[in-house]
Design goal:
With 575 residues, this protein is an alpha/beta fold. The protein has 27 helices and nine strands. The longest helix is centred in the C-terminal third of the chain and has 22 residues.
């Protein structure tokens, strides 16, 4: 132990230091803390004394105490990179990540290439959400200390956050060579492989953890989801049940369990588990101050219902607003601003306001008795199949715009107007749900039909390529941007005789309007469309066409074509 001024003569600091260190190394926590306290009293100006006391405090889970000890130590030796580094670690443990970054940076000023400090700085930056900066610090650390398992693993984690899954897999494969049976490496590799849609390989990673005896509830949760994406519903259900037995209150497990319950039509169980979505980090409830409605009897009160998630879910959940109105309750519906005019037209007698931050005054009024997210209504109004009212339409498009659009769009010899969409930009599932426009060619070549592009986004290049190759011209109204003028988009949808689409917001609009809509689905199951059925309890006009094998969109299109021939014959017979 380094000496320092002011050493008391009544105690030998070196003896105390050695005894405290020995007790710490022997695992005698109480004795180590007691001796360390004596040591710092005996040698308050010796940095090593405070450093040892801080290490003992950190080991005991007392990060705040360690921070105080280390700041005392830095008074004695402000140039110590080790003390600044350890202070950064203690601050990280205390959740003071910005202060931790400052400490690690001070440590690096004195030891610029220290791989351990660089790794620790990367961890603090990651906690602050500064993933690009964290990635660079990890790479700098590995340049000095190649193949260090913790740093390789940390780099992989931050690459997952940055959605650089290819690089994350490379890092995790490197970590796997160092520690082939490390359960955390296998877990994260499985997550990356799921993101890459390599489901069989992902399932193997999660199963390997089980086989090694390291499985916890999160492993069974991941394994359940990998089986579900592979179409193994019974295995998925058994595994999610096991995960729930191990962690009945875990929010992620509950939300995934709700997906399985929705798919099989266990409605009440699904809605109950689904409420856990608000306990996940990625979900934030609206800042309304009224108590949450939890099924209390209603009559005459005012309830604030706030829409959640994307436009499609807002529309689907809005199908339960008539149930509230029938309960003799005053409803304030807070929704995406693009839905206000549509919902006002559909639900007479309610107050409909745009979602803003902070909320509009109507949504914070003291006269409002309860507030509830729209998805929570299902627990009370869609607890069983009989509660769905046969999927009857509940939205109404602008009739003037609809009639004008139909006259404009159907101006040639065609007698049926069919809207199409083929692409989703959803960051999580868009690649699975989407297809190339030319996959629809067997439909587009059918005579006597006017196919109309309802796809959101810029489709000019795709339509141009199709026309250049086949001579087929799709209708398109450049005056309507579905992402801006959604009321105009619903008028477009209402002008169609039929909509053929992948799963997206247009489908929900068509179903809610009662327009016939055929939905082409991938093999991966979506809670909204359940499984193994061709209809939807939510919308009576929906017909589902599912892939029978992964990625087989041409097979789906051929089945749609067969039914489209029947649709044309029926339309001709009614003409």
């Amino acid at each position: 132990m380094a000496g320092g001024p002011g050493k008391p003569k009544s105690a030998n600091p070196q003896v105390l230091f050695d005894k405290a260190l020995a007790a710490y190394q022997a695992g005698d926590e109480a004795k180590a803390q007691r001796l360390a306290k004596k040591l710092t009293k005996a040698a308050p100006h010796v940095a090593d004394a405070w450093q040892l006391k801080a290490i003992i405090s950190l080991n005991a889970g007392k990060a705040d105490a360690a921070v105080k000890d280390l700041r005392r130590g830095l008074r004695a030796d402000p140039a110590s990179s080790a003390l600044h580094d350890l202070l950064g670690s203690a601050l990280t443990e205390s959740g003071e990540h910005a202060a931790a970054v400052e400490s690690f940076e001070r440590a690096l000023e004195r030891a610029p290439k220290d791989p351990g400090i660089l790794n620790n700085l990367g961890n603090a930056l990651r906690h602050l959400g500064q993933f690009d900066e964290a990635r660079e610090r990890y790479r700098e650390s590995l340049a000095q200390r190649p193949d260090h398992p913790d740093t390789v693993f940390n780099l992989a984690n931050v690459l997952i956050h940055l959605e650089d899954f290819e690089a994350a897999e490379t890092a995790l494969r490197a970590a796997q060579k160092i520690a082939p049976n490390d359960p955390e490496v296998l877990r994260n590799l499985g997550v990356v492989l799921m993101k890459a849609r390599r489901r069989d390989e992902a399932e193997h990673c999660f199963q390997r953890i089980v086989d090694l005896g390291f499985a916890d509830h999160s492993v069974y949760n991941n394994l359940a989801m990998s089986h579900l994406t592979l179409g193994r519903f019974e295995q998925a259900r058994a595994l999610i049940t096991k995960a729930l037995e191990m962690a009945p209150d875990d929010s992620q497990v509950l939300v995934n369990a709700s997906i399985i319950y929705f798919l099989e039509g266990s409605w009440l169980e699904a809605w109950t588990a689904y409420e856990a979505r608000w306990r996940r980090d990625l979900s934030s409830p609206r800042p309304h101050r009224q108590p949450l409605w939890q099924g209390q009897p209603l009559g005459g009160e005012t309830i604030l219902v706030w829409g959640e998630q994307g436009l499609g879910d807002e529309i689907m959940f809005a199908s339960m607003i008539p149930d509230l109105i029938a309960a003799d309750v005053r409803v304030i519906l807070e929704c995406d601003s693009r839905l206000v005019s549509l919902f006002k037209r559909a639900f007479a007698g309610i107050t409909c306001v745009a979602r803003e931050d902070p909320p509009l005054i109507d949504t914070t009024s003291e006269n409002v008795t309860y507030q509830v997210p729209s998805g929570n209504l299902g627990r009370w109004f869609r607890a069983g199949d009989a509660d769905f009212a046969d999927g009857r339409p509940f939205l109404v498009a602008d009739e003037v715009r609809t009639h004008a659009m139909r006259r404009k769009y159907l101006s040639g010899d065609e007698h049926l107007l069919i809207g199409i969409t083929w692409c989703s930009h959803n960051r999580d599932t868009g690649d699975v749900k989407s297809m190339d426009l030319e996959v629809l060619l067997p439909l587009l070549e059918m005579p006597g039909l006017k196919f109309f592009d309802l796809q959101y986004g810029d489709t000019k290049a795709e339509r141009g390529s199709l026309e250049a190759r086949t001579g087929i011209t799709l209708g398109r109204d450049e005056g309507i941007d579905p992402m801006v003028d959604f009321d105009g988009h619903t008028a477009q949808v209402a002008a169609m005789d039929l909509v053929i689409s992948i799963s997206n917001t247009t489908v929900h609009a068509a179903g809610a309007l009662g327009v016939p809509v055929w939905v082409m689905l991938p093999t991966s199951n979506d809670r909204r469309w359940m499984m193994d059925r061709e209809d939807s309890p939510w919308y009576g006009s929906v017909k589902l066409f599912r892939q029978t094998k992964d990625g087989d969109w041409p097979g789906v299109v051929q089945r749609v074509k067969k039914d489209l021939l029947g649709f044309i014959e029926s339309a001709n017979a009614d003409a």
